[in-house]
Specification:
The chain is of the alpha+beta class and 498 residues long. Among the domains are: 153 residues, no CATH class; 110 residues, Serine Threonine Protein Phosphatase 5, Tetratricopeptide repeat, CATH 1.25.40; 66 residues, Immunoglobulin-like, CATH 2.60.40. Helices cover 65% and strands 8% of the residues. It is built from 19 helices and 7 strands. The strands form 2 sheets. Strands 3-2-5-6 form a 4-stranded antiparallel sheet, with no helix packed on it. It has a 3-stranded mixed sheet with strand order 4-1-7, with no helix packed on it. Helix 17 packs parallel to helix 19.
């Protein structure tokens, strides 16, 4: 097995990778499409799976690979076969070679996934040569030599892994230097190398973006200088500005723009202020802010700049209030009164005099209070068994009135409470049993004297019946009448002599 075959990077795998091109060269009609890159990711996933497969399948493969004898392997012309290794020493050497090879393959698979083939040259190719030598020695049953070859290859990979940070720093430094010297090709190469080492490196990504537009920047710089020589300062300024827009860190463009802008300050200021006012009038606040920034850069102390800033601040405040108002109305439509209250409070924090927020917050708080009171009774309808809570619930319903069409939750709650109130007002038949000798009284209802069987109508609630008889201990019975559900008969009689 060769170096690339173990890592899952044989010839078939390489055909999955997109064709390479020198960094920074323009794309042509043969450039990879989005579909090509999708195949690239599939190929990389395949590499990862093959690398994991090597780790787990390797011991069986190595054992199978090492089985043939020297007579089974063809020898090159003139080659003298080495004597086969025998005995415990050979077994130990073979085991050491296999273990070293497994460690090598694990590290190789890891580095393969980390693009070491891109950034690790020439060491990567040297490792391939050394491990191929180990394969040959292992096949010749020269296990000790094979173990040493595998150890050398492993050591080289470990060194390559250890140098990864240094290689990254070097690529970044060379890339920055090339960028400073306008050496576009070198900068692209070094930053792409750095990203191959660490794909998410911010400095390398930033440098690569700058390098990719540097050629276009140099074209703009040349156009600006040509326009200056023809005394076309506006064209020169446009060219230098385009250069700074492509890369705001490119100092030559910044300096030239500042120099030419100094000659056109008055003209540009008037144009910028015109843009500011037009953007404000049409409600394009971002454009207004951008143009105002440009104008303020030209004449920061000008009164027109201060006036425009005030207008922009007022417009932004109004836009924020309008947004909060819309959100609050949407919350009200869904009867989310708590959210609406929060939005109105935010609006008042932006502008304490916002009338819509003040009036809206009052209404929202009223609705929150109403729902809270309704929930108080609906959460425990048994409260309505008492006269005072029942009267309060009726007052609440009277004050609430009919729910508006846009408040179905409120309508549902008021309807449910009305039903509970109505049920609490309907008397139910209660049956009392006694012995004909006991005087029976129900507190807050009346005296019923002596009887054996008596029926009466009671509204839902909790009642206390007391029985008394001369020469006997009084008895007390507490019973509850629930709405819509007659209670079981109540037996009250004095039976304990005193």
């Amino acid at each position: 097995m060769g170096f690339n075959e173990r890592a899952g990077t044989g010839p078939d795998t390489h055909r999955l990778r997109p064709p390479l091109r020198p960094p920074g060269t323009p794309l042509d009609s043969d450039a990879p499409t989005v579909a090509n890159y999708r195949w690239v990711w599939i190929a990389l996933a395949t590499v990862a799976l093959l690398g994991l497969g090597v780790v787990f399948v390797l011991p069986q493969l190595v054992s199978r690979y090492a089985t043939p004898t020297l007579q089974e392997r063809p020898l090159a012309q003139g080659q003298i076969p080495a004597p086969p290794a025998v005995g415990e020493e050979a077994d130990s050497a073979r085991l050491q070679a296999e273990q070293t090879l497994q460690r090598f393959l694990r590290l190789q698979a890891k580095l393969e996934l980390e693009n070491a083939g891109v950034w690790g040259e020439p060491a990567w190719s040297q490792v391939a040569v050394r491990v191929a030598s180990g394969d040959r020695l292992f096949g010749e049953r020269r296990f000790a030599d094979a173990a040493q070859a595998y150890a050398d290859a492993l050591h080289k990979l470990q060194n390559l892994q250890d140098k990864r940070g240094l290689l990254l720093d070097a690529a970044l430094d060379l890339g920055q230097r090339a960028l400073g010297n306008d050496d576009v090709q070198a900068a692209l190469t070094e930053f792409e190398r750095a990203l191959a080492i660490e794909p998410d490196h911010q400095l390398a990504s930033h440098g690569l973006r700058r390098a990719r537009v540097r050629a276009e920047i140099l074209e703009r710089m040349a156009a600006g200088k040509s326009a200056e020589s023809n005394e076309d300062l506006e064209a020169a300024q446009a060219a230098y500005r385009q250069a700074t827009q492509l890369d705001g860190e490119y100092q030559p463009a910044i300096e030239n723009l500042q120099r030419v802008s100094g000659q056109l300050t008055a003209l540009q200021f008037r144009a910028a202020m015109s843009q500011v006012l037009a953007a404000l009038d049409s409600g394009r606040l971002s454009d207004a802010a951008e143009a105002l920034t440009e104008a303020a850069g030209l004449k920061p102390e000008d009164s027109a700049v201060r006036d425009a800033r005030q207008r922009l601040a007022a417009a932004r405040q109004q836009a924020q209030l309008s947004s909060l108002r819309r959100q609050a109305l949407n919350a009200i439509e869904t009867e989310n009164w708590q959210a609406a209250a929060g939005l109105y409070q935010k609006a008042l924090a932006v502008d304490a005099g916002a009338a819509f927020a003040r009036s809206g917050l009052v209404r929202v708080k009223e609705r929150l209070q109403l729902h809270k009171q309704l929930d108080h009774y609906l959460s425990d309808p048994a409260r309505l068994s008492s006269a005072e809570p029942l009267a309060n619930a009726e007052k609440l319903l009277l004050a609430a009135g009919e729910a508006p069409d846009g408040e179905p939750r409120l309508a549902e709650k008021t309807s449910l409470l009305k039903r509970h109130v109505a049920e609490a007002r309907v008397p139910l038949t209660v049956r009392l049993y006694s012995d004909g000798e006991t005087e029976v009284v129900i507190y807050h209802v009346g005296r019923f004297g002596r009887f054996r069987d008596h029926q009466l109508e009671l509204r839902p609630g909790t009642y206390t019946a007391v029985g008394s008889r001369a020469g006997y201990r009084d008895v007390r019975r507490v019973f509850t009448v629930l709405p819509g559900k007659p209670p079981p008969p109540v037996d009250i009689r004095c039976e304990e002599p005193v």
